[in-house]
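## retry 2 of 3
previous attempt timed out at serialization; input unchanged, resubmitting
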Amino acid sequence: MALTQTVRLGLKELSSVSASPSSFLHGERDCPGLKLLARGKVRDLYDVDEHSLLFVATDRISAFDVIMTNGIPSKGKLLTQISEFWFSLLKDVVPNHIITCSVDEMPEQVRQYRAQIAGRAMLVKKLKILPVEAIVRGYITGSAWSEYKKKGTVCDIPLPAGLRESEQLEKPLFTPSTKAELGDHDENIHPSKLTGIIGERYAREVEEISLKVYSKAAAYAKEKGIIIADTKFEFGVDETGTVVLADEVLTPDSSRFWPADKYEVGKSQPSYDKQYLRDYLTSINFDKATGVALPTSVVENTMAKYVDAFSILTEKAPIL
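## retry succeeded, writing output
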């Protein structure tokens, strides 16, 4: 079985997306001697050899599935470092795709691009990526809260009446979505539909692993003073058929992090994540179609929240 890791990590193949810097106006970290397989909302993906790929986290930022026209300086470095932290912490729960995050340990053809990629690159194993996002919700917020208010359900899963915004669910809820290509929107689906997409075995394993990973991460984060309200995971399958945790994990881009000491049921919560950016865009009546230039204050405040999340969770400062 040929293993590939391209489109399904929020990336789009270059047959459809120009490789020129003009197609993405910021955060480029080009490695011209490597084959660029895909560019996504945040990451660029290069082919390295038969067994490995290079993930480069740029400073691009997206919201509502739209890339903004300016980025968040050094965000890619922070995302890479926090992912590396979580991959290490969770390695006893599920294997992951990381080979190394140290440029010194990467092949020679990669090391020549040290200036572009240091601190923001991961050498990863080639996998057959499962075309779904594995979302776990511990609290009812965001799109889940919107659906619940209308229908009393989340991803068509009935929930008890009388829940309040941001309330902790009785147990974490697995609510997968389809994985849309760049420019399209993911579609939330009932867990029962997962079997038809990735097969019964992998549907079962992805749900079980996602809930285990979330539970361990949430318990760890709570000890540090952060509530992980929800998050999303992506998985691949290696040559032995083993499910492997891939892409990023538990970053401020992919998760909602709430300060536990400010948590109050019945309203939206302050957070250390991308919700600040979403709220800003909502306040300016963002059309959810075309990226906009973010004001300096929004750029700086967004990054400050990301740094806070990293520092609280890891108990150290990011290397930016």
